[in-house]
Amino acid sequence: MAILVTGSAGFIGYHVCQRLLQRQEQVIGIDNLNDYYDVRLKQARLEQIQTYSNFQFYHSDITNRANLQTIVERHSNINRIVHLAAQAGVRYSLINPYVYAETNVLGHLTLLELCRKLPIQHLVYASSSSVYGANHKLPFSVQDPVEQPISLYAATKRSCELMSYTYSHLFKIPITGLRFFTVYGPWGRPDMSAFIFTKSILKDEKIPVFNHGDMRRNFTYVDDIVQGIIACLDRFSDKNQKINNLRSLAEETTVPHRLYNIGNNRSESLMDFIQTLEKIIGKKAKIHFEPMQPGDVKETIADISESTRDFEFLPKTNIEEGLKHFVTWYRSFYGI
Ligand SMILES: NC(=O)c1ccc[n+]([C@@H]2O[C@H](COP(=O)([O-])OP(=O)(O)OC[C@H]3O[C@@H](n4cnc5c(N)ncnc54)[C@H](O)[C@@H]3O)[C@@H](O)[C@H]2O)c1
Q1: Could you tell me if residue 200 is inside a domain?
Q2: What is the DSSP string of 191-258?
Q3: pLDDT for 190 beyond 60
Q4: Is residue 142 lining ligand 1, measured as CB closer than 6 Å?
Q5: For the segment 154-177, what is each residue's pLDDT rounded down to a tens digit?
Q6: Is residue 85 part of a domain?
Q7: Does residue 288 belong to any structural domain of this protein?
Q8: How many domains does the chain have?
Q9: Hey, which of 46, 94, 102, 109 has its CA 20 to 30 A from 271?
Q10: In testing the pocket of ligand 1, which one of 43, 125, 180, 181 has its CB within 8 Å of the most ligand atoms?
Q11: What is the CATH number of the domain that holds 173?
């Protein structure tokens, strides 16, 4: 059997593929290698996973239905999908809104249509903590109302959740949406805080700190997120003799669509995050305080009780350890 991973050259996709390949799964990766950020970083990640003989890569856009059809015909043993390809980033959705609708909405629909035609046992897709918008109730729970997204990115991620519910209801496809909370770690995204801060400290450049530093995040180390994604994907695997066929489970359940938060259960202040980086790098940051950015939220805290209960998700890595791994990777990758 094979697992299709979309966004396989992306930050989280690369790590998911690594982990699946190490446990000898056959992995089919798709990515359009777009230039939202440095394509060389995407290619370098890809080079690492292309060393595995059980990995096959397709340079394709997920909205290209004909390409997707060819891929699944060629790999008729695909039975699970980890769908991570997306236009990420809250701030960029103010600049290039159409790409969010194309990739996140149309792309997600393309994947759902694929699942409708194939005997897919489980589709796990990435949603985001941004769907909680400006909710005041903390921690954020999957039971909370999320009908007021404050960025287009969040609105498209919420659309993915709604469309998934519909497909799951209509066609009994087992689908799980995971709301990720600020992921960081080696091979990370250049538009995210760990990367921007490390780069600026090392180059003696000013760090833009929004909302005058008054922000808190559930910074989550990438290995913990990957462990959660794969545990969720496996939840009804062959290990559980009673329910090794998700389709039959789906018939018993009215709508086999579930949503979970996966994020750190500890929230850190942005200023503590920067001070930890300063300590690790051994240099002071040049901080430039700026007002809150439109679409951004002040604080995120994940209620992970349901993901802990259902697939034993429990993040282990604290920010000191996680940031050390990140800085070590950054320095070696960029030779600084
Ligand atoms: N990193 C985080 O903190 C975070 C937080 C919440 C949600 N997420 C979600 O997790 C997923 C992975 O995020 P990431 O941080 O790895 O981002 P990323 O940008 O590094 O990875 C996404 C990958 O998808 C590819 N892609 C984009 N559009 C595509 C298309 N139309 N067709 C094919 N490939 C396409 C990109 O080239 C990229 O390699 C995304 O769905 C993102 O929205 C991430």
Answers
A1: no
A2: TSHHHHHHHHHHTTPEEEEGGGG--EE--EEHHHHHHHHHHHHTTTSTTSGGG--HHHHHHHSS--EE
A3: yes
A4: no
A5: 999 999 999 999 999 999 999 999
A6: yes
A7: no
A8: 1
A9: 94
A10: 180
A11: 3.40.50.720
